[in-house]
Structures are given as C-alpha cells and as structure tokens.
C-alpha cells in the first residue's frame, strides 16, 4: 500500500504522535524508508505532536511545577 501511495505522488508521511507508541512509529518510519529506497523516490516524514506541551516519562522524584519567568 505504501508503494502505491508513493507511486501516486505521496512525498510526505505524517505520523500523529498523539496515537501509537515509539516502537510503532519507528516501524512505520522504517517501512517508508524501505519503500522510498526501493522506488528511488524521496519521502519526508512529518512528526505531528499534539501541540505546545512537554512530554516526559514519570519523574523519579514525582511531579515538578514549571513556571514562566516574568519578562
């Protein structure tokens, strides 16, 4: 299916990081790289995060409050 999309003109693959995990996204990136190489066509990968938010794993010492400094 990816090959058909690339042959039809797809030149960017968007990954929505709000869904799935890093292993799934890594596999998708690997798949598009393989198809891109096989077809000799460049395909960009767009990583779409939810927006202006900070994503972290659980912190060892619990939550941390971040505050902006006044200008």
Automatic annotation (TrEMBL):
**Which pathway, per its entry?**
Carbohydrate degradation; glycolysis; pyruvate from D-glyceraldehyde 3-phosphate: step 5/5
| InterPro entries to which the protein is assigned, alphabetical | Pyr_Knase (IPR001697), Pyrv/PenolPyrv_kinase-like_dom (IPR015813), Pyrv_kinase-like_dom_sf (IPR040442), Pyrv_Knase_brl (IPR015793)
Q: Which GO terms describe its molecular function?
A: ATP binding; kinase activity; magnesium ion binding; potassium ion binding; pyruvate kinase activity
Q: What class of enzyme is it?
A: transferase
Listed EC numbers: 2.7.1.40
Domain Pyruvate kinase barrel positions: 1-64
Give the record's family classification: Belongs to the pyruvate kinase family.
Q: What PANTHER family does this protein map onto?
A: PYRUVATE KINASE
Q: What is this protein called?
A: pyruvate kinase
């Amino acid at each position: 299916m990816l090959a058909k999309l690339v042959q039809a003109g797809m030149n960017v693959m968007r990954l929505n990081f709000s869904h799935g995990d890093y292993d799934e996204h890594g596999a998708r990136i690997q798949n598009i790289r393989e198809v891109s190489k096989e077809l000799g066509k460049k395909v960009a990968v767009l990583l779409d995060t939810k927006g202006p938010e900070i994503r972290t794993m659980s912190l060892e010492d619990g939550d941390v409050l971040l505050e902006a400094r006044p200008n």
